[in-house]
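Colleagues,

Please find the record for the two-part complex below.
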Amino acid sequence: MLKVATAADLESDRLSALHSLRILDTPPEERFDRLTRIAVAAFDTAISTVTLVDDDRQWHKACVGVDSREDDRAVSFCSVAIEKPQPLVVPDATQDPRFADNRLVTGPPYIRFYAGIPLTTAADFRVGTLCVIDTRPRAFGERDLRLLHDLARIAEDELNHKELSDALSAWRESEQRFRAVFHESAVGMTMIDDDGRIVEANIAFAAMVNIPPADLRGLPISAVTHPADRGGDNVDQLFSGEIDRYQREKRYVRPDGTWFWGALTASILRDRDGVPDVCIGMVEDITERKEVERLKDELVSVVGHELRTPLTSIRGSLGLLEAGVAGELPAEAAEMVTIARQNTERLARLVDETLDLERLQSARVELDVRTVTPPELLMSTAQVVQRIADDAEVELVWEAPADLQLSVDPDRIVQALVNLIGNAIKFSPRGGSVRTIVKAHGSEALISVRDEGRGIPLDQLETIFERFRQVDVSDHREKGGTGLGLPITRAIVEQHAGRIWAESEPGVGATFRMTLPLPLAKPPIAVYDRRALGREELACAARRVGRRVTTFSEPEALAAAEGLALVLVAGAGLEDVELGFPVVRIEGEDVDAAVAEALK
Amino acid sequence: MSAGRLLLVDDEPDIRAIATMALERVGGWHVTAAASAREAVAAVLHDVPDVVLLDVMMPDTDGPATLEQLRPLLGEGVPVIFLTAKGESASLLALGAAGVIAKPFDPISLPREVAAITAR
């Protein structure tokens, strides 16, 4: 039996064709907007739209002269226009029985004239129109119709443009995915505008601050921030483009005055042109973690103190006994007392270092930063380790430039060096040497401690920096370490924003290297030479003494430069240039020496 | 041979015992031990010592407050040395102390440290 397609079947096919274009409710696009602009200008009408006719509404993909993007299908001229493949031209709607009582005719925008060309899909479904509308009756000639027709064909091509509709559907998907992530995330999410006001907040954030999402909209973020933590947010810097994201821990307040600790990650979302659009804040409630941290800190310091006091007494008593202060002890008793005293000292050291490490890792140690030179640091270190080296018959070799300035906490860096060199001595054979070398390396100082011991197995180069991870389990007894020296050393270096690592060739020795950032107080040195080779030679020499370098090959660029300390010049070409900083000519064979002299 | 009379003020009995033994047997001091400011005042009223070793951290009356009570009885000539577990030597010296010894101290070298300060 032949199935006869009903009008309802056709309409439902038409709607699925329209929906498969995935264009409804997408943002305005220039490729359609320009057609309505042209139409309004060409026909001198008040209104032009690219309109799609949905199930019970009409929706404007592009429009000029219309405020609302959609309206009821019942009042839609376009809905009538797509009934037939031919254009629909209504010269005066008040005279047309189909439209005379339409509320768009009897009321705003008082439509009188309408001309619309149906837009068809590739499968020949009429899904909408390109139309022009006016508030006065008018005629529409053959030439007008042809022009409107041509514009409609362009609109049709755009509508059926596959790549673009794919891009649109991708946009729609990512938009939907973003909305899903934003609203359904268990993490608190906020969108903040450039005034620092909440544009949107998700349910998780609303629950955290105990304010409904609708009431949060428009509220400044400072209104839910603990007074002590206001001013720490860098929303301005995000919108000015200075930074792309930042993280901080801050307290959020609820209307009832209670507060919670949140870990905030704020980042900027940019639009297609890269202009900052909205700031996205992700907030995690870390109150529990903070409380655990506080309890741990308290536990460590209380237990530490409670252990220290009796240990001090035990150590003191044993020391007096061992020294025979309370009377000479029998040989065997003296031996036992010595064992007790040594182990008490080890235990006391363990307690001290555990406390020290906890303080360093929780960043509760304030660094007492001063400007020192490498030789000063090495001298203080040598005072501690020289005796240990002498006892072990190990030679200590030092190498450090005196013209380098470090901004560090000298006591802490000496502590780190004593740990590293003390270790190196322990693992050195009799007659071996331990070399400590300080060098400038770009914007950092590089300190290396190299021994000639048994080395470190490659798979342990990283784990030795963990607590109680000595290479050999018997080490703590034979070498007397606590297993905390390297973790403490790493914590000290990291507090100074430096890095530390170990390198080793097993059987040949181990090298520990640490970096410390050099102070940036010294402005960069300018280097000028027209010849690339000469430029490079000067730049290298300046970098070798720890200075930052900017190179120039054009006198004009150099004249326009600012914030430079001085300019090093080799060769000719700067005689006639006015510069705001001193010029030093580098001559002679030994460029390194000449540059070092000039930069003293 | 006696190095002189030393008044030791510390609230912890163990520390008093250890320090007393070290100072008497190794350093040759004649030691009087006091557990509080009150006991220290009583001891000074009984016999003015040649040197005072004073713990900073004590319940009720702490080291600096004890020094305030003792100073009029001691006069200016008697050196007072603070024992402290915290690195606050500058502020303690400003109170008129002759020196500061860090806690925990090594009992064997304690007499030497005291001697070094009193010799100044």
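Residues 287-322 of chain A form the longest helix (36 residues).

Comments are welcome before we finalize the supplementary table.
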